[in-house]
TrEMBL record:
Lineage summary: unclassified sequences, metagenomes, ecological metagenomes
Any one Gene Ontology cellular component term annotated for this protein: cytosol
Organism from which the protein derives: marine sediment metagenome
Pfam family, one: Hydrolase_3
GO molecular function, a single term: phosphatase activity
Protein's name according to its UniProt entry: Sucrose phosphatase-like domain-containing protein
NCBIfam families: HAD-SF-IIB
Length: 268
């Protein structure tokens, strides 16, 4: 386990550590599997199952638990080292009921409802299923059968960005946080829950109150951590609306993501 007094290297996955095909740069794989005191934390909108699926695709941690702390589902689920569940922050029952009532009226959009252990799908579309396959997500159909599900994130998937914006306007007055991680992905979490709050909760549980945080991300849902970081990075292919908040732009195709971050943090 890394020494928590060292600088923290925190990073998003999709579009940041992963390229558009879900691949990790060979240099980054070598760094992540090295026996070192580098203090990594992953912060992503993905579920644990989805993160593990993509790491397996890259031959990473196939037979062991992920050794790094994790901020998942946009901060609504957090894990300590080795996948030890440390916190789950679901919607209130009233807010969840309101959301489900609204999204039932949008069959053109696929909605993935994330719990702590499994994901449910409301409205199956070709684009939604293709996106799930690309992200390595497994889901089961959502059925309102009286079961008391607790969800902490809803991911809305559609090629129709105008329709997604319409949905965002309808739900903006509910007790939720809303962000577009991509043009085709609208993500909803409980009010006050985002990657920044999730990292704060995790660091508190790790007894780490003062940190030197180096963060890299590429989406709107990463912006709370840009505000927190001592120094921030964005991949060169990030949207301009994200790049303007970064201290440094990285061409991840050349040396990967982690080498420039480690150099800036003083590890290399």
């Amino acid at each position: 386990m890394a020494n928590m007094s060292n600088p923290i290297i925190c990073f998003d996955l999709d579009g940041t550590l992963f390229d558009p095909q879900g691949r990790i740069h060979p240099r980054d794989i070598a760094i992540l599997t090295s026996e070192s005191e580098i203090n990594f934390i992953i912060a992503t909108g993905r579920s644990l199952q989805s993160v593990r699926a993509m790491f397996t695709k890259n031959d990473l941690f196939t037979d062991v638990r992920i050794p790094f702390p994790l901020v998942l589902q946009n901060g609504s689920v957090i894990y300590k080292h080795n996948e030890i569940l440390a916190g789950f922050f679901p919607f209130s029952s009233d807010t969840q009921s309101q959301l489900i009532e609204i999204i039932r009226n949008f069959p053109q959009i696929s909605f993935y409802l994330f719990g702590v252990k499994e994901t449910h799908l409301l409205w199956s579309t070709a684009f939604g299923l293709d996106s799930a396959e690309r992200f390595g997500m497994q889901s089961r159909p959502y059925q309102n059968n009286g079961t008391n599900y607790n969800f902490s994130k809803i991911m809305c998937v559609s090629e129709d960005n105008d329709l997604m914006k319409k949905l965002a306007q309808i739900i903006q007055d509910l007790e939720v946080e809303i962000s577009f991680s991509m043009e085709t992905l609208l993500e909803i979490t409980p009010q006050g829950i985002d990657k920044g709050s999730g990292l704060g909760q995790l660091l508190s549980l790790l007894n780490k109150t003062t940190v030197n945080l180096f963060f890299a991300g590429d989406g709107e849902n990463d912006l709370p951590l840009f505000d927190t970081a001592q120094y921030s990075f964005a991949p060169a292919k990030s949207p301009e609306t994200v790049r303007i908040y970064a201290d440094e732009i990285i061409d991840t195709g050349k040396r990967g993501l982690l080498t420039p971050m480690l150099e800036k943090a003083g590890y290399l």
